[in-house]
Amino acid sequence: MDYPDFEILIFPDEPFGFKEYIPKCNLQVISTGGVSPAQKRDIALKYAKGEIFAFLDDDAYPARDWLKQAITHFTDKNIAAVGGPGVTPKEDNLRQFASGRVYSSILVSGRFVYRYTPKKRLEVDDLPSCNFLIRKNVFEELGGFNTNFWPGEDTKLCLDIVQKLGKKIIYEPKAVVFHHRRPLFMPHIRQIANYALHRGYFVKRYPQTSLKFVYFLPSILISGIFLSLIVSLFSGKVRDIYLSAVSLYIIIVFLFSLSRKLRLIPFVFFGIIITHLVYGIYFLKGLLVLKLEEEKR
């Protein structure tokens, strides 16, 4: 890391062979037992000495200048947190890289593509915790993430920062973290389903940041396809419109799947379609569920 003063805290479930403290690296390994990632990060309040907490996931690693690029924003006392994109690393295999292409497609992430590829700097109200820096005193004041949600703990924390404290969150495109992807298809599908389930539930739980039309689009798409299919069985005119609309959708997805790496194209093509289907279904499930499992604990 191209930064003069930082410590590293690793919170595995169980010890995994590292010494508990390595002075040369200023590194501590603290086993926590089987708790959620949010709870692990809350434990940092007990051990971390720095004024800024910088969070990573266990399947991510930072660019060399990650801290240097992010830390400049903390000269403004009204800025409580900073984050950046989680870019797919070049060493990921074909199916992982295809998953990254799906996430970074405007057809999947819409205006939130900046979470997966560097875009312009802006103020935001929600950022993922795989690349997230926050003032220790702010984190302490909020009681940490203080939730069992996973994923979605970052949505709650960001909402607390903006709503409860009236502070700002900045997206810095140069503060890059490389985030390994879940490969297409099943690992990617399970992750998408979990994201969608929580976002649908958060429409009711945290409408301030989750009640946005863009999150409903996959469900609208799936509902439209299903209902139009049923109606088309009884109307030739509707059938023609339905087939034209589906054909247009397939063409658009194909165009956005094109790549110089020909082997990527079929994975990205089917990845986008499956992502729409799975997200749309599980988002609706999240809207309908009364309480998520995490909240029952």
Structural commentary:
There is one protein chain. Helix 3 crosses helix 11 (264-288), helix 9 (213-232) crosses helix 11 and helix 10 crosses helix 11 (264-288). This protein has a domain at 184-297. A hairpin with a 4-residue loop joins strand 2 and strand 3. It is globular, with a radius of gyration of 21 Å. The chain is built from 12 helices and 11 strands. The model has no long low-confidence stretch (mean pLDDT 93). The strands form 3 sheets. The protein has a 5-stranded mixed sheet. A 3-stranded mixed sheet has the order 1-3-2, with no helix packed on it. Strands 5-11-7 form a 3-stranded mixed sheet, with no helix packed on it. The chain is of the alpha/beta class and 297 residues long.
Write a short abstract of this structure:
This protein is of the alpha/beta class and 297 residues long.
| Backbone shape | globular
Q: Report the C-alpha radius of gyration, rounded.
A: 21 Å
What strand order characterises the main sheet?
4-9-6-10-8
Number of helices: 12
β-sheet strand percentage: 5-15%
Oligomer: single chain
Mean pLDDT: 93
Largest sheet, strands/sense/barrel: 5 strands, mixed
User: Segments where pLDDT lies below 50 for 5+ residues?
Assistant: none
Total strands: the figure is 11
What is the N-to-C succession of helices and strands? EEEHEEHEEHHEEHHEEHHHHHH
Helix/sheet category: alpha/beta
- Could you estimate the helical fraction of the residues in percent? 40-55%
What gap, in angstroms, lies between the N and C termini? Answer: 39 Å
